[in-house]
Amino acid sequence: MPPAPTGSGRTIRVMAADGARTWILTGSPENYGATRDHGFTVIGCKERRRNQALLMEPGDRIVLYLTRVMRFAAAVRITGELFEDRTKLWPGKPGKADPYPWRFETEPELVLEEAEWLPAESVKDDLEHIRKWPAEHWKLAFQGQLRTVSNADAALLMERMHAAARVSA
After folding, report:
1. What is the pLDDT of residues 72-94, one digit of tens each?
2. What's the predicted TM-score (pTM) here?
3. For the chain, which terminal residue's Cβ has fewer other Cβ atoms within 10 angstroms, N or C?
4. What is the pLDDT of residue 41?
5. Around Cβ 100, how many Cβ atoms within 10 Å?
6. Tell me, what's the pLDDT at 4?
7. Dihedrals φ, ψ of 21, to 5°?
8. In b/e form, how buried is each residue of 37-72, taking b as 16+ CB within 10 angstroms?
9. What pLDDT is recorded for position 17?
10. What is the Rg, in whole angstroms, of the alpha carbon atoms belonging to the chain?
11. 3-class secondary structure for 33-76?
């Protein structure tokens, strides 16, 4: 498995014991709705995210983070190889159409009901990924569409998301 790129030009390996990585995909609630409407069976990456998409593999997890509401809503597993498809599935930003052409077949791992969505603020002090930014600017940790997180962050997110699902059950 190739290493994940970092913003500094260095590379790091971020993967679970089984070799899978966890990615956070940032998207709008509207794009999330389109993903949900497709049964969480396909995920697309923006045009300019091709190099990152090339690093993603079957078995990798993608945690879906929603802009504006600043919450984690679901986790899916990649089940197929990268493919290109420019059929419009996601609404994207008005005036900034992006076909999200770099796609993967996926399956849902954990899908929270809207009332259960995990507020990012509730985990901001516990995630290693967020500590890279000054505390008052923690929201910058979720700028851009795609990033990997450490195994510890992945475990924490999944634990808290499972807890949120149990609380409302």
Report:
1. 999 999 999 999 999 999 998 77
2. 0.87
3. C
4. 98
5. 26
6. 40
7. -100, 160
8. eeebebbbbbeebeebbebbbeebbbbbbbbeebbb
9. 53
10. 15
11. HHHHHCCCCEEEECHHHHHHHHHCCCCCEEEEEECCCCEEEEEE
